Amino acid sequence: MPELPEVETVMRGLSARLLGRTITHAATHRPDMRWPFPQGLAARIQGSRIGSFRRRAKYILMRLSERDGTADSVLIHLGMSGRMNIAAVGANEIPLHEHVTLHTDDGWRIGFVDPRRFGSVDLIPTAAEDQHRLLQALGPEPLGGDFNAKHLQARLAGRATPIKAALLDQSNVAGLGNIYVCEALFRASISPERLAGSLTPAEIKRLVRVAKQTLVEAIAAGGSTLRDYAQPDGELGYFQHAFRVYGRIGEPCEHCPGPPKCSGIQRIVQSGRSSFYCPRTQR
DNA sequence: CAAGAATCCTGTCAGC
DNA sequence: TGCTGACAGGATTCTT
Fold first, then answer.
1. Among the options A21, A55, A58, A164, which is catalytic?
2. A3 in active site
3. Residue–nucleotide distance: A8 CA to B7 C1' (Å)
4. How far is CA A203 from the centre of its chain?
5. A88: phi then psi, degrees, rounded to nearest 5
């Protein structure tokens, strides 16, 4: 899925096109994705003006202007394969795997496409956004000041789980996914198999620094384009060209001579997910 | 409680 | 070509 940099990029794309527009028509094309859509979703957002956008972890919050004394936010998660298509209003047929469609007063059609349907859409009161069950247990934003060595140290202390899994745990830090955890661990020269509680203060400090750095660079690149991710306007992110270990099995890492002197980047499976790392430089 | 596995779903690609 | 199995950016829920 889209991890934090991709979600941030999608949110910026939506914001550029939709801010201040009115939703003239909304429709759902099935009753659910990861979870059932809230009752009357389409009818409840139809006629609303889009006031602002916010990202929290890998969630997008589209805030609607006040109606009948309360303001609601549309909570969107892109799951693994979710995409937002923005196009000029054209043919009437619904593209394959488009589950929600919005139309704006200035003639744009926004389609939420998600083949695997791990994504979700909910409608919640803006005033209670962070109390939502999906947001309530999230850890700090990785790019915020609250994600620092002291915080991470406290969260990792005594933990017997691999650091890889600890960083994917959204209650420790919210927004890192498989790619950026692999990349951050490489940059910090820490093996994904190290037990979380065994990291030294110096390593934790380094990890926090390079994780932020990786995300900042990825956002600047417009995210990473793998199979099916694209920005709302169809632009492709290009951070995938900057991957140092992700998907690069057998290649030498940037510090190593590579085969035959060194077997290069390896792939292992940890809690069902691929970890890519260099066993020689990551200890 | 904590850690790991199973689960939801579809598409794509490698190998035979 | 067509079939099969592995794998994919996530995160909850179920087992041990």
1. A58
2. yes
3. 28
4. 25
5. -65, 145
Question: How confident is the model at residue A226, as a pLDDT?
Answer: 77
Q: Is A2 a catalytic residue?
A: yes
Per the listing, tokens 């934790």 go with A204
Rounded CA-CA distance A8/A84 in Å is 12
Averaged over successive runs of 10 residues, the pLDDT of chain A (283 residues) comes to 90 95 98 96 97 97 93 97 90 91 96 96 97 96 97 96 97 96 98 97 98 97 76 81 94 88 92 94 96
The whole-number pLDDT of residue A225 equals 84
So what's the pLDDT on residue A4? Answer: 96
Q: What is the pLDDT of residue A214?
A: 97
**Cα→Cα distances A58→A8, A54, A152, A162, A163, Å:** 8, 11, 19, 22, 20
Question: Would you say the C-beta of A1 is within 7 Å of strand C?
Answer: yes
A215: left (phi over 0), alpha (psi -120 to 50) or beta: alpha
CA at A38, C1' at B3: how many angstroms apart?
33
pLDDT at A260: 80
Gyration radius of chain A's alpha carbons: 20
Q: Which residue has the tokens 């704006």?
A: A104
What is the C-alpha separation between A24 and A65, in angstroms, rounded? Answer: 14
**Type of residue at A94:** I
Residue type, A7: V
Q: How far is the CA of A54 from the C1' of B3 (A)?
A: 33
Question: What is the reported pLDDT for A229?
Answer: 58
Nucleotide whose C1' lies closest to the alpha carbon of residue A179: C9
Within 7 Å: CB of A161 and strand B?
Answer: yes
